[in-house]
Amino acid sequence: MRFFFFHLMPYAALDPDYDQTHKSAWVTLPNSYYDPEIGADLYNRYLDELEYAAELGFEGIGVNEHHQNAYGLMPCPNVFAGMLARRIPKTTKIAILGRALPVLSNPLSVAEEFAVLDNVTRGRIITGFVRGIGAEYHSLAVNPTESHARFHEAHDLIVQSWTRDGPFAFEGKYYNFPYVNLWPRVYQKPHPPIWIPSQGSSETIAFAAHPDRRYVYLQTATPAVLLFRYMQAYRDEALRMGYQASPDQLGWSVKIHVGETDEIARREAKPHVEAFANKFLRMPPEMLLPPGYTSIASMKRIQEAKKTITGGARTMEQMIEQGTFICGSPQTVIDQLADYQRRGGFNIVMAGLHYGTLPAELTRKNMELFAREVMPALRDATAPANIAAAAAE
Amino acid sequence: MSDTTEITIAGCRTVLRQAGNGPPLLFLHAEHGGGWPPLLQSLAQRCTVIAPDLPGFGGSETPDWLDNIHDLALFTLELLEALDLRNVTLVGSALGGWVAAEAALRDRSRLARLALLNPMGIQVKGLNAADPFLATPEETVAANFHNAPQPTDEADLDTQLKNRHAFARMAWAPRLHDPHLLKWLHRLRLPTLILSGAADRVVPPANGAAFAAAIPGARHLVLPACAHLAELDAPEAVLAALQTFIAEPTP
User: Fold this and answer.
1) Is A303 on the interface with B (CB under 8 A)?
2) Could you say which of A145, A284, A303 has the minimum Cβ distance to residue B168?
3) For chain B, which domains are there?
4) Taking Cα atoms as reference points, which of B187, B71, B157, B174 lies closest to residue B120?
5) Quick check: B137 pLDDT over 50?
6) What pLDDT does residue A307 have?
7) How far is B133 from chain A (nearest CA, A)?
8) CA-based, 20 to 30 A from B85: which of A165, A363, A386, B220?
């Protein structure tokens, strides 16, 4: 098993009663709720935590991108990667998961930023390509009905800019450049790894698994039962396309809390993980699912099920039960991760060891227990050969 | 009631509803989708009313070429040619009003007059209008109707989602307008009536006033007790205004 540390950088000082007057912590939550003095402290603390993770021996550290919200304060993940690049050991990777290609006006500048980071770190970056969540299309006023088409075109542009000799013309519908000629060229050959974080859309899984790409598929925020299904869908798609997917092509992004005992872990985590789920993630369906962001068929399934993904308070116990949160003593966490790996067949764990309002001292303790007690026990753990049978359990 | 037929325009299978006798009136529906509301039935007593489901909406196909409002404008012109309609009263509501204005700007040779109900298409800065894309279903009903709230259409969920998708494709960004429309509206040399619902929060009356001010000779009429979907919310008032307008001799 391979371990990465992932940070979302929420505005942890958010007044929890904001939801008595506002629908969501996204898009329209007045930024008067943000205090720059507190925010400056949080940013520096969070960057310290990412640097500390590198010291603790994680294979890499992860940052991501969200816009105009209290849930994650990293609108510009490459800036954060840049701040970290020369502060961490020369062996630690930086995973930028990802850049939300369709909502950015110029994907060629994204290709440039990644190329610079790739050179400075001598090839220690992992890039992530995402569409962004639905709220991003409100925040940045990008047409969600163009989301898929823009994503694919931006992807093609960036990969070509990294792999083809310039200058060449890129003649797309949304992006049209007479001269694509990247300075600097990328450091890694043929190009930096591309990971695809996703909530499990079948189109995205098929895109990532395609034999020309074989991108790492990183499952985000999903109950365990769906995790197993999506991982199997990736392997099935690979087989259908004529090859066997490796467990190193599959990852899971999950929030984890380790305490000395199960009881201590749950006591420490409960208010903070419930704040994450019920305050920071709070979003009405109109915000989460703008037209065109998902297919009409998926939209219909969601509406008919009357599921407001973010509606209704969730308890920590429900999250643990569903497998969207792993919490307990080191042994409990080891057993749980080993079991999920056995049934999910993934090698990569993107551990969210800070979440919601978890304070600094508990975050450090969580990171230390995870790095010292959990990671060594699982470092040699691998997905079973007969994964299909295990996944079906 | 209306006869429903299909016609293929620019490769797009298009649903058309038609009823009545007399001079032609082409009605372009609002963003909630097409149909045959009582207003059209009333208009059909004096006109030949033709109401397509615009491409991307209702029973019509969603063609690959449907990218922006200009595609719907050119579709409208192609439809007028295919049906060989002349001396047409072109009426559009909300999103359909925007389409009608864009079409008339490009080619008014088959048009006699233009009537726009709460038309989208231009932006009046600082109006702080309601955002139809962030509104909850309840807020949408409140924005669309001043009088007794009614379902915007009987359409099944598939059609509602389809219409919403097409609406977003046309109007998400720039939000509900084309920044290049207002500056050319002065070329709209056609008898034009703009109707605004006094209670429309999506396209407030100030927007209709600016629309009319940009078109030489256009009139702006504000209907009291009327919200965004005027043809459903205040059909009698809209009918009276349209009948008066149609009865006026054209130059």
Assistant:
1) yes
2) A145
3) 3-247 (3.40.50.1820)
4) B174
5) yes
6) 47
7) 7
8) B220
How far is A246 from B91, CA to CA, in rounded Å? 60
Question: Could you say which of B134, B161, B168 has the minimum Cβ distance to residue A300?
Answer: B161
Query: Which residues of chain A lie closer than 8 angstroms to B164, CB-CB?
Result: 291
Cα–Cα distance, A118 to A158 (Å, whole number): 14
Q: What is the pLDDT of residue B156?
A: 85
Q: Give the pLDDT band (50/70/90) at residue A200.
A: confident
Torsion A72-A73-A79-A80 (CA) sign? negative
Kindly tell me if the per-residue pLDDT of A298 is higher than 80.
no
- At A378, which amino acid appears? L
> B68, B141, B161: which to substitute to probe chain A, counting the most A Cβ within 10 Å?
B161
- pLDDT beyond 60 at A219: yes
- Between vectors from CA A104 to CA A101 and to CA A105, what angle results, nearest 5°? 125
Distance between CA atoms of residues B233 and B207, nearest Å: 19
* pLDDT score, position B148: 67
Test B164 with A286 for CB contact under 8 angstroms: no
Closest residue on chain A to B174 (Cα): A141
CATH of A2-391, one of 3.40.50.300, 3.40.50.1820, 1.10.357.10, 3.20.20.30: 3.20.20.30
Burial (CB < 10 A; 0-12, 13-18, 19+), residue A190, is: exposed
A305 touching chain B per CB within 8 A: no
Distances in Å between the Cα of A296 and the Cα atoms of A55, A289, B159 are 46, 11, 10
pLDDT at residue number A305: 60
Residue among B135, B162, B173 whose CB faces A143 most closely: B173
- Percent pLDDT > 70 in chain B is 97
**Residue among A213, A212, A103 nearest A148 (CA):** A103
